[in-house]
UniProtKB/TrEMBL annotation:
Cellular localisation: Cytoplasm; Nucleus
Pfam families: JAB (PF01398), MitMem_reg (PF13012)
Matches recorded under InterPro entries: EIF3F/CSN6-like_C, JAMM/MPN+_dom, MPN, MPN_CSN6
Organism: Volvox africanus
GO terms under biological process: protein deneddylation
Keyword Cytoplasm assigned: yes
The family this protein is said to belong to: Belongs to the peptidase M67A family. CSN6 subfamily.
Domain of life per record: Eukaryota
GO cellular component: COP9 signalosome; cytoplasm
CDD domains attached to this UniProt entry: MPN_CSN6 (cd08063)
Protein name: COP9 signalosome complex subunit 6
SMART domains: JAB_MPN (SM00232)
Keyword Nucleus in annotation: yes
Coiled coil ranges: none
Amino acid sequence: MDTDTSTRQSTSGLEWKLHPLVLINVSDHHTRTKANTPGASPTGLASPAVMGCLLGSQSGRTVDIRNSFEVRYNMAADGSVELDVAFLLKKQEQYKQVFKTLDVVGWYATGSVATDMHMQCQRKISEVVEGPVFLLLDPVVDHSRKDLPVTLYETELHLSPDSGAPGLVFVRAPYAIETSDAERIGVDQVARILPSGRATGSEQLSAQLASMHSAIKMLLERLRLVHEALGRVVAAGPTADAAAAAAASVPYPHSLLRQVSSLIHSLPACDTEAFNREYLTEYNDTLLTLYLAAMTRGTHIANEVVDKFCLAYDKAGRRRGI
């Protein structure tokens, strides 16, 4: 069975929209399974480590994948996957009672690449759902990767290059991340929770400041890059020396300089009287808040000291000889 999906693209014309809740559910499912499995390998397994179904709705040629639920399965002695179809149908019925507009549109698994075992699962899921989509999440952490480690696959009938017989193969399906306001707030809250599992106010502030510091550091690096590029530019204008212009390694980029000038002039002016007044007001309010917090903390400590002193040196205690 051909499972080479590196160059095959879907021709169905469907527009897939993936919601962040699905990615959070799949990641949480994989993390819990890995944490509860003794001796689990940190790398992705060839067989699907976790499996589940995708819930969504279709409107015309657009399919929204909004939610997911887990599915139980067993590995047979011959290496095949045995799905718990009764459990799948029961979960589908339960979700249908609460989310009446959502139907099972596909399934998910974890792994690095699509394999023959995934195709076997695809055939079994197709017996319950017509034309399911397959979401593959790569659990291996790659810091050099820029996009999400998520791939959507559809199945199409293609001729085998070896035998010439027709067969189902996985083809990549393009998708876009779609989110609502409620999901955006939830994802932002989850992102602020630290690996320690706690999310107090001070820790959330520290995480936010660290993220802001990283963003400012990246902005500074980009500005330095632009500054160095402009520093190497030689002003080879109409009045410039022809020999100097010919020896210049970098020509005079008029279009680039116009873009830089437009970007600089689009920035808000920060040296106005209104900005300074607003900045000083916020700065003073922040200092007053810090001073009030320090005074409150000091008053609380002094109150504790007074309570302990009264408990240790009360009049009744001194009469008893304490």
